[in-house]
Amino acid sequence: MQDVAERVQSDQNHLIHPLHHPTAHNQPKIWVQGQGAVLRDAYGDEYIDGLSGLWNVNVGHGRRELGQIAMDQMSTLAYTSSYAGSSNMPAIELAERLSELLYPSINTFFFTSGGAEATESSFKTARFYWKARGKPEKTKVISRMRGYHGVTLAAMSATGLPAYWPMFEPRVPGFVHIDSPYPYRFVNPDPNVSPGVAAANLLEAAILREGPDSVAAFIAEPVQGAGGVIVPPDDYFARIREICDAYDILLIADEVITGFGRTGRWFGLEHYGIEPDIVQFAKGITSGYVPLGGIGVSDAIREVINGVPPERRWMHAYTYSGHPTCCAVALRNIRIIQDEDLVERAAIAGRRLLEKLLALQTCEGVGDVRGLGMMAAVEIVADTTTKQSFPPEAQITQRLSDALLERGLFTRLVADTICLAPPLVTTDEQIDRLVAIIGEAIPAVIRGSAG
Question: What pLDDT is stored for residue 1 in this prediction?
Answer without folding.
Answer: 61
